[in-house]
Amino acid sequence: MIIKGRVWKFGDNINTDLIIPARYLSSTDPGFLAAHVMEDADPTFASRVAPGDIIVGGKDFGSGSSREHAPIALRAAGIACVVAKGFARIFYRNAFNMGLPIFVSPDLFDLVEEGDVIEVDAAAGRILIPSKPAAEVAVAPIPPFMRDLLAAGGLIPYLTKGVGR
Questions:
Q1: CATH number, position 114
Q2: pTM higher than the cut 0.70
Q3: What is the DSSP letter of 1?
């Protein structure tokens, strides 16, 4: 699984209410949620993000409430993956369950600028920064069964399809 995309940067403590504000939680429609993703962190984000883009975040990304809406909104907006210095534990689990790949990297944030294109190799556990040829960042590779879960679109589709049985 190779993910190549343009970087959007958000700093430390991006909580689930910044990812998708609580005022929109009455809906579970992914398209509606995508239209409001990151609205309180960057009001123009939803109109500028493109399919395949990548969020690079600081510490404690996804903290706050345990809403599944947050990774759903990111994925529906076209975010291909999130790489952050660290994640809230429940967001980490929810992201994979909702089919959004995420990676922990304490180093990437300081190496990239918003708009850079990076390439994440989920199987090999490395991130390449083409604009900085000498820069390569190691991340934990995603195990094969988790890549199957992501390819299925998340936990429910994975189980519904009977993958891994």
A1: 3.20.19.10
A2: yes
A3: -
